[in-house]
């Protein structure tokens, strides 16, 4: 797996951006391509607020502890309470415009309220959460300048697996599932995630109808359940997250700077920063650092709070792996 490296030089305040680290061979720090050093990212997205999504599909995903993204046309919603419950359980409620209209037929002045008012409606109805991503109706791309004013990323449906960094965040590819697609069986789903694993990529599924709800290209709930069983069995390979969380991780990972503040015999102080909006980009990055040879183990804290971490051995070296939110204060790794 191609990794992102950061070399900490002998001068204490030397800083190297993540954007140039691939040129460096020797490293103290490594930022995971995908959270938890998983080899692929997987996202399950739903369009159109079809009737069986909340009643049938979401409970299945809840049983597996998997969070999805629900792209909803805000003028179509009859059950905001159900969407609020899904959001409170970790699912992302995102925009599918106001009226699910083909953007190709709209002028820029007509597109603007579709982007703006959908986000406004969702934020007003779904308490405690923010609408930060959008999916284009009929997979027709809108005006980038207008759309990016409100959303950090947009989803299309070009039908391919994305690379570790999408070429166009305002038109990220997804793959339609169900009877109108080539992804209908459990094996079809499994083959796609394995393909993502082989290229270190990001697989985004696009689901509409569920079972016999009369919606477009229905996917069978029994197929989803069987596929999620497969994902559970191969949990070590796949990072499953909402569409918005994967976007935030990628942008933070590519922008991150690690700076060591001090190195002592029993402690190492550092900070992780990004030049992004903290109110949106506050998702944890997974980082790994090699420990000094005399250290058998270590603990790690940020602002007095212990960070979730793991100490492991590879060859003759020990590493500490931890998740940290950028721009959230200094971090101290201490010899244990």
In short:
By secondary structure, the protein is an alpha/beta fold. The chain is 25% helix and 26% strand. Helix 1 runs parallel beside helix 6.
Write the layout of secondary structure elements.
Blueprint: E1 4-6, E2 16-17, E3 29-31, E4 40-47, H1 51-63, E5 69-72, H2 80-88, E6 92-95, H3 108-125, E7 133-135, H4 144-147, E8 153-155, E9 175-176, H5 186-199, E10 202-207, H6 221-233, E11 238-240, H7 243-255, E12 257-263, E13 267-273, E14 285-290, E15 298-302, E16 305-306, E17 309-314, E18 317-324, E19 331-335
Parallel strand pairs: 4-5, 4-10, 4-11, 5-6, 7-8, 9-10
Antiparallel strand pairs: 1-3, 2-12, 3-14, 12-13, 13-19, 14-18, 15-16, 15-19, 17-18
Folded structure, characterized:
- By secondary structure, the chain is α/β, with parallel strands linked by helices.
- The protein has two domains: 116 residues, Immunoglobulin-like, CATH 2.60.40; 196 residues, Glycoside hydrolase/deacetylase (TIM Barrel).
- The longest helix is centred in the middle third of the chain and has 18 residues.
- It has seven helices and 19 strands.
- The strands form four sheets. Strands 2-12-13-19-15-16 form a six-stranded antiparallel β-sheet, with no helix packed on it. Strands 4, 5, 6, 9, 10 and 11 form a six-stranded parallel β-sheet that branches. Strands 1-3-14-18-17 form a five-stranded antiparallel β-sheet.
- Strand 12 and strand 13 form a beta hairpin.
- Helices cover 25% and strands 26% of the residues.
């Amino acid at each position: 797996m191609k990794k992102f490296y950061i070399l900490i030089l002998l001068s204490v305040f030397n800083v190297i951006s993540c954007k140039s680290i691939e040129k460096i061979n020797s490293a103290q720090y490594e930022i995971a391509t995908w959270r938890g050093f998983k080899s692929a990212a997987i996202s399950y997205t739903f369009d159109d607020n079809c009737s069986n999504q909340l009643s049938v599909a979401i409970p299945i995903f809840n049983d597996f502890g998997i969070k999805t993204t629900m792209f909803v046309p805000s003028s179509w919603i009859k059950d905001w309470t159900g969407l609020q419950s899904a959001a409170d359980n970790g699912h992302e409620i995102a925009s599918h415009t106001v009226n699910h209209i083909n953007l190709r037929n709209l002028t820029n002045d007509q597109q603007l309220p579709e982007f703006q008012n959908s986000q406004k409606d969702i934020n007003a109805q779904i308490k405690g959460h923010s609408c930060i991503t959008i999916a284009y109706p009929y997979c027709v791309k809108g005006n980038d300048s207008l759309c990016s004013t409100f959303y950090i990323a947009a989803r299309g449906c070009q039908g391919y697996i994305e690379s570790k960094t999408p070429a166009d965040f305002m038109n990220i590819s997804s793959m339609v599932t169900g009877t109108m697609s080539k992804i209908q069986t459990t094996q079809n789903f499994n083959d796609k995630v394995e393909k993502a694993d082989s290229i270190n990529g990001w697989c985004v599924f696009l689901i509409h109808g569920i079972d016999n709800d009369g919606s477009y290209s229905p996917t069978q709930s029994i197929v989803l359940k069987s596929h999620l069983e497969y994902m559970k069995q191969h949990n070590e390979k796949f990072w499953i997250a909402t569409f918005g969380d994967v976007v935030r991780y990628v942008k933070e990972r590519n922008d991150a700077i690690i700076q060591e503040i001090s190195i002592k015999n029993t402690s190492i102080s550092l900070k992780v920063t990004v030049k992004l909006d903290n109110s949106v980009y506050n998702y944890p990055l997974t980082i790994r650092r090699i420990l000094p040879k005399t250290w058998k183990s270590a603990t790690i804290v940020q602002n007095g709070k212990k960070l979730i971490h793991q100490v492991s051995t590879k060859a003759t070296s020990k590493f500490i792996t931890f998740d940290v939110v950028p721009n959230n204060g200094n971090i101290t790794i201490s010899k244990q």
